[in-house]
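Recall that a protein's primary structure is simply its ordered list of amino acids. Everything else, from secondary elements to tertiary packing, is in principle encoded there. The following example makes that idea concrete.
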Amino acid sequence: MRQLGIVMMGSGDVKKISDVIEIFGDEINVNVSGIVDGYTYEYIRENLWPEENESFIVSKIQDNKNIMVSTDKAMELINLKIKELENSGVNNILIFCTGHFERVKTKGLVVIPENIIYGILRGLGISKVGIIVPEKDQICDSMEQYRNFNPVIKAASPYKDIENLRTTAQQFKQEDVELILTDCMGFTEEMGRIVKETSGKNIIVPRVFMPNMIKSLIR
């Protein structure tokens, strides 16, 4: 049976990505690992939290607490998880985050969603993209990340009140963007449907299309 490793930014909680695992069905055995597995919230807050003006990723841990992890520290932890997975015979790996990460050194296939998203936007000839990020403090980093597509960026966390997401989507109704990207793996297919119906725009939900793409590659 084919093997796939999914490296999550928070805890490696299978239940939280059951919708993703279902996509792979019985054909692919999915190994889920979290970069902060084994760490307490207090440890994360003291050692992994971003400094002021430092880029970061947003996720959750087992007790459902929201966390932030410095992008640089997240990259170090991701590399450790990739090595662990490779040592156990798993050579196809999905980094479950849309943030910016440098290419990792690996023997197998490591999928960094940002690179695939960039290719899709270019392939579609998108000149102005709408983006929803979890936190306002991430807007500046995303402006730089997607600067080639003249981004219009707003914040609404997938881990908070769904009405906040609906309100943010409504704001895009009058924006002259060609489509909207939910720029976090926490945004589910259902959230994407809400954004699409509320904004009236086409939408890209990485949590949905990335697993389907990988399935077609490795099955």
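Strands lie at 2-8, 28-34, 56-60, 66-70, 92-96, 109-111, 129-133, 152-155, 179-182, 202-204. The chain is about 40% helix and 20% strand.
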